[in-house]
Every structure is written in structure tokens, then in C-alpha cells.
Predict the structure of Nitroreductase family protein.
Amino acid sequence: MTEYEQIALDKIADHEHEIYALLKQRYSPRVFSEEPIGKQDMKQLFEAARWAASCNNWQPWRFIYGFKGEDGYDKIYDCLDEFNQSWADNAPVLMLTAYKEKTPDGKDNFHALHDLGLAMGNMTVQAQYKGIALHHMAGFDWKKAQEVFDVPEGYHFSTAVAIGYFGGELEKLPEDLQEQEQSERERIPQTDFAFENNWNAKV
């Protein structure tokens, strides 16, 4: 068993209640296999996003992506913060997620971010099914990205995402990130976020 395979086993969620296997196995690595992500791989991921639920079926999500070695990849990488730049170039694909801010009749779409999240949830599970990892990032300069990609008014970048097949060598990461990669996963208990009948009610 390789070092990375052992890490993958250790990353399986220590769940309190049984959940779908792909959800247990999902985590966000900072190293990736050298196996390239193909255009058909990306089309399958976007197809999963396409069939996510959305308010009134408005489908407000938008994506810009680039393969390593392409201009789009470099533009996205240049918009990442310094921390994420320290590892994200391990990924064969970089992507930005965005949402449409208005409804078709011009009103604020309060649910657009929720719907983008549902699309990314679909994409993440489809990726896991194919052995592809998605690492979602908040650390990027969205204002710079809006200008670099000449995003039209009414659309807003939300996150950056590193995409690649699971695998890779820990030695590609700085030492502090190697430790994080091997650290134990933690989640707050259900009693901190799921309440029956009354806010903060403990079940």
C-alpha cells in the first residue's frame, strides 16, 4: 500500500450514522495524480451540475475552467491568494464558480448561492464516483477575476476549485501542508446544527 493510499483510507469519515459510501470517502486533497483530466471528464462533471435542483429551474450557476498549460489556467492561478498558490498548481484543472445575481424578471435572486452550492454538491459526488478530487477554495481575488475574465454585470464569482484524480506525492507540498494532508478530519456534532421544534433545541 502506498503512502497516499493509506492517507485515503485514514480520511474516510468517522461517521456517527451510516451514509452513502461516496460521501464518506470525499475529502479535499492538495496533491493530485499526474493522470490528466480529460475534456470528457469535465463534461461529465458539468452534466452532474446541470441536473442539480434550482429555484424555479433558473440554474444560475456559471463556471470558467482551464487545463494546466492553458492561458485560462494561468489566469485563474494568478487570482488565487498566496496560500492557495503554494499548492494549487499540483492540480491539472483549475476552475472558478459563479452565479447569476438576478432572476429573469430582474429581482435579486436570494437563492442563487444556494443553487450554486447544490450544483457543486452534485459535481463533487460525480467526481468522487470517477476518482476525481475537488478542492474548493475561498481564497482568491474575485474582483481581479471579474476583470481578468471580463465577466458581464450581474454575475459574481464565488469560489475557486482545484480538480484532479486522487493520488500524487506529499513531497510536492510544503512541510506544514504535508502535516495538514495527514491530519484527522473533524466535524461539529449534529446537535450543533440540527434542531427539532425550537432553535438550539438539543435532541
Remarks:
- The radius of gyration is 18 Å.
